[in-house]
Amino acid sequence: MNAAIRAAVRQADALGMDVYGVYRGYQGLVEQDWRPLTSRHCANILQRGGTILNTARCDAWRLPAVRAKAAQDLKDAGVDALVVIGGDGSFTGAEILNREHGIPCAGIPGTIDNDLPGTDRTLGFDTALNTAVQAIDRIRDTASAHERLFLVEVMGRSSGMIAVNTAIACGAEAVLYPEAEEHGYQALVTQLRAGWERGKRSSIVVVAEGDASGGAYKISELLRKDHNLDMRVVVLGHIQRGGSPTAIDRIWGSRWGAEAVKRLAAGETSFYLGSENGELVSRPLARIHDPKPNPPKELAILAGVLAR
Ligand SMILES: Nc1ncnc2c1ncn2[C@@H]1O[C@H](COP(=O)(O)OP(=O)(O)O)[C@@H](O)[C@H]1O
Ligand SMILES: O=P(O)(O)OC[C@H]1O[C@](O)(COP(=O)(O)O)[C@@H](O)[C@@H]1O
Q1: ipTM for the complex?
Q2: CATH code that applies to domain 2-124+245-289
Q3: Cα of 128 to ligand 1 centre, how many Å?
Q4: Is the CB of 88 under 6 A from ligand 2?
């Protein structure tokens, strides 16, 4: 996200425009917590995780009167446009602000879940994915040496994108995730039994946080109770949400940050950026209400084939 902030600021600088940094998302608009952000303020942030502007949930943004006050504050301060980095909630808030008060808004997709419509990539996903894969590579050493079963829980409260892609990249024996069509727990038992019969003596199962079975600890309880299996559970948790971003995330953050400003300067008013087949694309903000993408089914099938 810092790459996007830096690029937006420096592109605006190049176009002779001033930028304010709004702190803690919409909460910062509500509280007028914004300060000038210059190119020099963005030195040495490209490689930093998180966001220098911080973030917050802001339930008040759902109230029309709160948005009206914030819109008037922005107009009074001479703010011409807003760049919002976030997911479907943030884009919904921006779309409403633009529709109600005419403030031009640009969205930059930022969520580790990579589950926004209209883009095949979001900021943070590649970094989170690589973090999960590196962690599981380390776990694999113990699984293999001790001939153990590990259940590794990755993030994804309502999305299996991280889980399915992690499973492919670290050679997991099985993957459970929220959007899976078959019943996760029963399918898992079948897969583990088949692996054992094929001679596998260690297994890594990747479980998305939001899987219907209830997460890795719940599944481990069931496996112990129903099948007397011994295993270890690792919840990777918030280590996936931090750390120095990968080159891919830095490059897309930079491209999107600069493009958002160029399009706003050219008069576009209600859009978010994304990527499709490697190309930078722009979508109307209202498209954020489309159904969210599921993990590609062929990846889930491939994970099963590769686990043979
Ligand atoms: N329906 C909505 N109307 C107005 N603002 C919204 C709406 N949904 C979300 N927001 C605003 O966007 C913020 C971020 O949304 P959230 O769902 O928490 O994260 P994300 O942007 O990652 O999806 C919320 O804290 C709220 O301020
Ligand atoms: O427990 P927290 O801090 O709310 O975060 C966990 C949740 O946020 C997510 O990481 C998504 O967050 P972002 O969209 O902000 O990247 C989910 O995968 C996860 O379920």
Answers
A1: 0.95
A2: 3.40.50.450
A3: 21
A4: no
